[in-house]
């Protein structure tokens, strides 16, 4: 998945390695030096993703400009930090921040993060496009796209044992998310039937066969197929899971347990927002009610939806 990425920075030479990584992955990199040049870019070109360096003197100003620019409302914002301490500090700058990467970063991890945010951007833009079309045809406006940056009220199901690192991660999320635990995949499926969570987190000690069985079950069930899955695993265990993660693509991500809590929260928010947007796009609202473009009795797309695509 290629993306057009606008990078706001002071000196492009200092970030040449990161730009090279993005270009080798097939992305188009557009470098800007100020928030004003970013706004000019938004008027002339479509931007999938905005990348801002946390050590940029005008970083906060750039975020304020992005918040006020309607043409950039669909574009996720990715901050680039030099270390974990800086990542934790800059995470409080704005609710428009969707993810933070800490340099240096593995090429595969960077690709996964960019692809995830690109999916978020494309689905957000499509939802807004459909809303505008429905209003133009007088079909009413669906409920606005859920883009809240607050994870309060979300629920997570943890599969596997909790080690010290994962325990620290969960403590940082305590009070913000309702967390339940399952011993293995079979136990998790029993809990899913009782109360599906917003996101499933799988501990690194879970066997690859258990993970694959869980994913097959989720993706074959219409009520669960949109549930995002986050595998908590160290870099050393990634080769064991590489085939599994590559096969499932979107909706499945890997996060090292040593990740900063602020970054973990952002990753969870992105996954849950993607889930809600998928449901919005296929005609199901977040609360489970039918969208205005579906017939109430047959659940088929109605005349307004037909006109929208014509």
Task: Explain what you see.
The protein has 310 residues and is α/β, with parallel strands linked by helices. The chain has 11 helices and 10 strands. It has a 5-stranded parallel sheet, sandwiched between helices. A 5-stranded parallel sheet has the order 7-6-8-9-10, sandwiched between helices.
Helix and strand sequence: EHEHEHEHEHEHEHEHEHEHH
Poorly predicted residue ranges:
285-291
Structural class: alpha/beta
Compute the CA-based radius of gyration.
Answer: 20 Å
Please give the count of helices. 11
Shape: globular
Distance between the termini: 27 Å
User: How many distinct beta strands?
Assistant: 10
Average pLDDT rating:
78
Major beta sheet, strand line-up: 2-1-3-4-5
**Main sheet attributes: strand count, strand direction, barrel closure:** 5 strands, parallel
